[in-house]
Design brief:
With about 325 residues, this protein is α/β, with parallel strands linked by helices. The protein is about 30% helix and about 15% strand. The protein folds into two domains: about 120 residues, Rossmann fold, CATH 3.40.50; about 160 residues, Glycogen Phosphorylase B (Rossmann fold), CATH 3.40.50.2000.
């Protein structure tokens, strides 16, 4: 718990999109429980948009690629909550003489699960709850992640409840459901009269264009990493099909039900859709999962069965079940 004298708090989470979004339940809960405190936030510049409009944060500090850009006077803080907990965040806070609470990353447990399939993570809660454990009891609240965006971020998606979103991207290959299977699932939905919208950022523009061009009645809504525009468009969708990615957490933050497809990911790592109606599809019959705690550039076994054995028909049936409120 917070001590009475801990009024000025700095939270550090430098990256990435999903990880930063998952800090927001803690931020909201701490601010509501301890109304007199001030919360500042340190994040890498490219992810600052996630929190820049958050009303529970006093000031967002940006970290560029070089540590010389670190210009915060940390002596003014009563407490630092380090949710990054890596060599860089430790270097940035090495001169801080007051209390630092660091996120327990369970590095050894992840290593044992990936390499020896020794599962000591199965009883741990999801990441937002693990973040909250840096403070103590009674946190976080029972709500999902927050993403605040301006009113001028007007959606391009009609508000008729007939749009299903697809998010085919993810940073690592082993987290990406094959494009041709997204296309097949999208066309099954399009045949029933659903409009399909494909979402992605700068790195997925080619992928999204290819998928959108092969699905009937499809909008390519990928953009140059305009998170507010993506969030506004997602919010108008009836449901979204996605990989284990940052956009999965964006969909949860705007309150849209999701079907999430896990390949090399497993729920024990804590990054399942948080406080969101969802169906999680995964191949539980493989002894090689997980092959990594972050994802890999190719399947180590060369068969990619974790994704290949999840059929487009199963994805289609799952999103129909979800949007028809049968879950």
């Amino acid at each position: 718990m917070l001590s009475p004298g801990e009024q000025n708090i700095l939270i550090i989470r430098l990256s990435s999109l999903g990880d930063v979004l998952l800090t927001t339940p803690l931020i909201r809960s701490v601010k509501k429980k301890y109304s007199g405190i001030t919360i500042d936030f340190l994040v890498k510049k490219q992810y600052s948009v996630v929190v820049e409009k958050n009303p529970y944060i006093n000031k967002v500090f940006l970290l560029d690629t070089a540590d010389k850009d670190w210009e915060i006077d940390i002596s003014k803080y009563d407490l630092i909550i380090d949710l990054q907990n890596n060599l860089r965040s430790k270097k940035l806070t090495r001169d801080f003489t007051k209390r630092i609470r660091r996120f327990n990353k369970h590095g050894l447990d992840k290593f044992l699960l990936v390499n020896f399939k020794c599962n000591r993570l199965k009883d741990l809660p999801e990441i937002p709850v693990r973040y909250a454990e840096t403070i103590g009891e009674g946190l976080p609240d029972n709500e999902g992640p927050d993403l605040f965006f301006p009113d001028e971020a007007v959606s391009r998606v009609p508000g008729d409840g007939k749009t299903i979103g697809l998010c085919p991207g993810s940073r690592h290959f082993t987290k990406r459901y094959p494009a041709e299977r997204f296309i097949d699932a999208g066309n099954l939905l399009a045949k029933e009269g659903y409009r399909i919208a494909v979402f992605g950022g700068k790195d997925e523009r080619t992928l999204c264009a290819d998928i959108a061009g092969k699905i009937s009645n499809c909008l390519d809504l990928s953009n140059e990493n305009d998170l507010f525009r993506t969030a506004a468009d997602m919010k108008m969708c009836k449901g979204i099909i996605c990989n284990d990615s940052g956009l999965m957490h964006v969909a949860c933050a705007v309150g849209v039900p999701v079907v999430t497809i896990f390949g090399s990911s497993v729920r024990e790592f804590g990054f399942t859709p948080y406080k969101s109606r969802h169906i999680l599809l995964e191949n539980k019959n493989l002894k090689c999962r997980p092959c990594s705690h972050i994802g890999k550039g190719k399947c180590p076994k060369k068969h990619f069965r974790c994704m290949q054995e999840i059929s487009p028909e199963e994805v289609y049936k799952s999103i129909k079940k979800l949007i028809n409120n049968n879950v």
